[in-house]
Automatic annotation (TrEMBL), chain A:
Protein name, per record: cAMP-regulated phosphoprotein 19
One Pfam family from the record: Endosulfine
Organismal lineage: Eukaryota, Metazoa, Chordata, Craniata, Vertebrata
Record keywords: Cell cycle, Cell division, Cytoplasm, Mitosis, Phosphoprotein, Protein phosphatase inhibitor
Described function: Protein phosphatase inhibitor that specifically inhibits protein phosphatase 2A (PP2A) during mitosis.
UniProtKB/TrEMBL annotation, chain B:
Name of the protein in its database record: Serine/threonine-protein phosphatase 2A 55 kDa regulatory subunit B
Pfam families: WD40
Keywords: Repeat, WD repeat
Highest taxon of the lineage: Eukaryota
PROSITE patterns in UniProt: PR55_1, PR55_2
Claim: Repeat is one of the keywords in the record: yes
SMART domains: WD40 (SM00320)
Coiled coil: none
Family recorded in the similarity comment: Belongs to the phosphatase 2A regulatory subunit B family.
Phylogenetic lineage: Eukaryota, Metazoa, Chordata, Craniata, Vertebrata
GO CC term, one of those recorded: protein phosphatase type 2A complex
GO molecular function: protein phosphatase regulator activity
Organism: Neotoma lepida (Desert woodrat)
């Protein structure tokens, strides 16, 4: 009987590469959700798109990406804690998107 | 497939240039591409009577324009990508060309028109447009039309916005040429091409409690001839065919297509790899094709129980699912397409490989879209992936495949043996030359 059980396990691995891969995954991530590949992915998919705290935060992030530095607070401004809160004057203009695609060049 | 001649368009490596959709128009004379940067580039096929044999049917840039811009949803503090998810052409009704392009949230109808004449000899303004003093005009003349260099203009004619809470994955023009559908993860809307402030919701699978969410809509398409019929596919590997004559809200399907699964072979990956990434009706309207992660299936619309054909795209990846899950490749959405006569189907894979299946001869071939491994005007060499054991010369082993080089988008000319293959930010156009 033990011989038959071993044979069955070997068969599973040989005939189902998928099950072998599943075992590998569970070994690496033991806390992986019990529900096979379902709702967690779907919820993540529905929330696709980076969330920002507000539109000021969004513009700051864009500025950071383009200029690699924050707009510096004026030295005589007191009581600034954390990042400088943007005012309309110091928000950088969004650069217009490239009109010419390289595909057309 | 005979001798193939390829023509390449080269690009620099920039994220915004990643091609996100490719589509021929109804005649095949125009080929539109959309990219991650929100731009649309349209190619036009050269006329054949040019005297030079080799320039027959080459595609050159016809028009390029910025379709969508990145936006910010203030209510949800979410960024809305400008990436063009889909382009669909309208059938041509006059000299101008019309297409629909969509990003995650907004669909736009674009008119592409040519201008090759301009009027000269106006009475009230002179040649550079300045108004003339009416008191100085002593004679009347009739303006005449003079030829000018061809100018192709793209203008947005309709903007269909604010109808989708979730991300639009599909648009499909109806055979009535008056309406079209747009589908997001949970809902499908029906629009009239002339009306932008209203759309009808025809499918809604959002559960009352989002905790109970088990599947999403992955693709949708109208039937090519029956204007009341459409299908939508799901992340669980099922397809529902709906008939708009039966009720206004098509939550109850007319047909339900699902292949039975052997419960003993079920694994953690089963549902993920069964998720359908694309669904396309055949030109005949009798069949439809679905693409899941490892295979392409052809279904007879009269048989819901199982597909009539299953073609393995890259079965060797089944033993790599663990790594493909870790690097997210298992969620890649491949598209598929039919040739004009429905005798062959094509879909993409990794390593810039794409696969073609001849339904009649049951032969298949793997080809590569890359500059390094092919020269312009040379035939494409079939490629082979070695799955184990001894690797033959010219074969490539599974572990050497480049999973960053994905071919997700391909298109087939509606009548001729011409295909367009998008490999990241490069577009390849291959033609079959019969000598």
């Amino acid at each position: 009987i033990i011989y038959l059980k071993l044979f069955q396990e070997m068969e599973d691995k040989v005939t189902s590469p998928e099950k072998a891969e599943e075992a590998k995954l569970k070994a690496r991530y033991p806390h992986l959700g019990q529900k096979p590949g379902g709702s967690d992915f779907l919820r993540k998919r529905l929330q696709k798109g980076q969330k920002y705290f507000d539109s000021g935060d969004y513009n700051m992030a864009k500025a950071k990406m383009k200029n690699k530095q924050l707009p510096a607070a004026a030295p005589d401004k007191t009581e600034v804690t954390g990042d400088h809160i943007p005012t309309p004057q110091d928000l950088p203009q969004r650069k217009p998107s490239l009109v010419a695609s390289k595909l057309a060049g | 497939m005979g001798t193939l001649i390829d023509k390449l368009n080269n690009l620099n490596k920039e994220h915004a240039d990643i091609i996100s959709t490719v589509e021929f128009n109804y005649s095949g004379d125009l080929l539109a591409t959309g990219d991650k940067g929100g731009r649309v580039v349209i190619f036009q096929r050269e006329q054949e009577n040019k005297g030079r044999a080799h320039s027959r049917g080459e595609y050159n840039v016809y028009s390029t324009f910025q379709s969508h811009e990145p936006e910010f949803d203030y209510l949800k503090s979410l960024e809305i990508e400008e990436k063009i998810n889909k382009i669909r052409w309208l059938p041509q009704q006059n000299a101008a060309h019309f297409l629909l392009s969509t990003n995650d949230k907004t669909i736009k109808l674009w008119k592409i028109s040519e201008r090759d004449k301009r009027a000269e000899g106006y009475n009230l303004k002179d040649e550079d447009g300045r108004l003339r003093d009416p008191f100085r005009i002593t004679a009347l003349r009739v303006p005449i039309l003079k030829p000018m260099d061809l100018m192709v203009e793209a203008s947005p004619r309709r903007i269909f916005a604010n109808a989708h809470t979730y991300h639009i994955n599909s648009i499909s023009v109806n055979s009535d040429h008056e309406t079209y559908l747009s589908a997001d993860d949970l809902r499908i809307n029906l629009w009239h091409l002339e009306i932008t402030d209203r759309s009808f919701n025809i499918v809604d699978i959002k559960p009352a409690n989002m905790e109970e969410l088990t599947e999403v809509i992955t693709a949708a398409e109208f039937h090519p001839h029956q204007c009341n019929v459409f299908v939508y596919s799901s992340s669980k590997g099922t397809i529902r065919l709906c008939d708009m004559r039966s009720s206004a809200l098509c939550d109850r399907h007319a047909k339900f297509f699902e292949e039975p699964e052997d419960p003993s072979s079920r694994s953690f990956f089963s549902e993920i790899i069964s998720s359908i990434s694309d669904v396309k009706f055949s030109h005949s309207g009798r069949y439809m094709m679905t693409r899941d992660y490892l295979s392409v299936k052809v279904w007879d619309l009269n048989m819901e129980g199982r597909p009539v054909e299953t073609h393995q795209v890259h079965e060797y990846l089944r033993s790599k699912l663990c790594s493909l899950y870790e690097n997210d490749c298992i969620f890649d959405k491949f598209e598929c397409c039919w040739n004009g006569s429905d005798s062959a189907i094509m879909t993409g894979s990794y390593n810039n490989f794409f696969r073609m299946f001849d339904r009649n001869t049951r032969r298949d071939v793997t080809l590569e879209a890359s500059r390094e491994n092919s020269k312009p005007r040379a035939s494409l060499k079939p490629r082979k992936v070695c799955t184990g054991g001894k690797r033959k010369k010219d074969e490539i082993s599974v572990d050497s495949l480049d999973f960053n080089k994905k071919i997700l988008h391909t298109a087939w000319h509606p009548m001729e043996s011409i295909i367009a293959v998008a490999a990241t930010n490069n577009l390849y156009i291959f033609q079959d030359k019969i000598n």
